[in-house]
Amino acid sequence: MKPAKIKTAAAAVLFTAGMGLVSVSDSQAAGSACGGASWYALSSKTASGERMNAARLTAAHRSLKFGTKIQVTNKRNGKTVVVRINDRGPFIRGRVIDLSKAAASQIGMIRSGTASICYRVINS
What we know:
Elements: H1 3-18, H2 26-29, E1 32-40, E2 58-60, E3 69-74, E4 80-87, E5 95-100, H3 101-106, E6 114-123
């Protein structure tokens, strides 16, 4: 392989890894992460098969096991809530979790719609 192609391939791998598509960071593997959050209040079935209930403290995460409980902290105001993972998502770049309306209300992000949060796994 020519040096130019090696540089291009290496750059592509680094770019992809930097976007979080190739590997999981140490913090995510350990059960914690920070990023964006949004909230939703649908009445359809979740990926776990249960009906979405906006009044329950639940959330959607891309990979955590259904039933996992996590503590979510709003970085702006320090408010926390414990939620149970029962759905998959979010599907928007930069977001790490989608909260139910009740959970979003407890950490003060209803009006804004989104928040910068950190979460940690309580049990799985």
